[in-house]
Amino acid sequence: MRNNFLEANKVHTIPPGFVVTPPPGKEMIRAIATTSPWQFFSDEEITKYHSEHPEERYPIISRSEEGFASKFNQKIKIIPRPDWAVASCIFNVISKVVPQYGKIKVTSSPSYAEVYLDGAYRGKTPITLSNVKVGKHIIKVTKKDYHNYSETVQVKGSSTTYVFARLRPVPRRGSIYINSTPSNAKAYLDGAYRGRTPLTISNLEVGEYQIKISKDDYYDWYSTVRVKQNITAQVFAQLEPIPRTGSLYVTSSPRHARVFLDGIEQGTTPLTIVDIEMGWHEVVIIKEYYRAYVEYLYIYAGEETEVEADLDRI
User: Fold this and answer.
1) Residue 84's closest CA among 38, 29, 43?
2) Shortest CA distance to 312 belongs to which of 250, 249, 257?
């Protein structure tokens, strides 16, 4: 159908590619039949038009009914007998009806979280919200012990909008109260110094912690404590002093010899001497009619040292 020519005595349909476009309003299709070949544009004019307007399939005579009629009358000359005829079809162009509702599918990790649409509770995940009006909406997802999740979504007609909420857990916290005897001892939590007893360590995540209590002249004290949510764990350390003295057990043959420690008489054998400062000491054992026994020895803290003296008779 080059140049839109239609063969007579046949039924014709609008050719493929013919699209009705906005704006809405009244449109008209006009068919013209003549007894002799006739056209608005020559082949040269059509070729030139297509080269200048490659996006348009057909030349545009006019964009208004009045303009078309004016140009048509300029082309058709009045003649005595009717050798041409015109038929018109008028139709209305209306806007496309856009669906006004869509869906929102909400899932979460972990699941079974509460879902709110624009502040109204709608159920638990996973859930599909139907008949949601087109436009912007606020989805909020909540779950105990997790931070809230909120997202603004744009709902389109006859389509499904997807929301996935990855919920972040709210850290569960507790505290530890630490005291000791004697007090003013250094407290360590998982190896990190936290202060001196008594003290409270707050805002700790739930879980197990290693406690160390340290003080000069005392053995270090260790313990494991479990922190529970919203509870203060109690820790008490009874520190054990580090011994700084030792003891000495002295025997002799014969018995009942006098014993001197660092020049001070302590008693007669067999004899136990306690609370001796650790370090080097002199022990002298004497008995009438026997040679004196002398020994230098080291006293270890927390230990008992033994001396066995075999006395020689004079």
Assistant:
1) 38
2) 257
Distance CA 56, CA 59 (A): 7
Residue 29's beta-bridge partner residues?
A: 89
Residue 174 tokens read as 């507790």
Which range of residues forms the domain containing residue 285?
245-310
Both structure tokens of 200: 């409270």
DSSP 208: E
pLDDT tens string 6-60: 666 666 666 555 566 666 666 666 666 666 665 666 677 777 777 777 666 666 6
Is residue 6 within 8 Å of residue 32, measured between CB atoms?
A: no
Tell me the DSSP string of 280-302: EEEEEEE-TTB--EEEEEEEPTT
**Cβ atoms 290, 313 nearer than 8 A:** yes
pLDDT in tens, 78-96: 445 555 566 666 656 666 6
- The confidence score (pLDDT) of residue 100 equals 86
Q: Which CATH number is 266's domain given? A: 2.60.40.1120
Task: Note whether 89 and 12 are same-domain residues.
Answer: yes
Task: List the structure tokens of 192.
Answer: 């990190």
The burial of 61, by beta-carbon neighbours within 10 Å (0-12 exposed, 13-18 middle, 19 or more buried), is given as middle
| 239 close to 178: Cβ distance less than 8 angstroms | no
| Threshold 0.70, pTM exceeds | no
DSSP 8-state code for residue 39 = -
For residue 37, cis peptide bond before it (omega within 30 degrees of 0): no
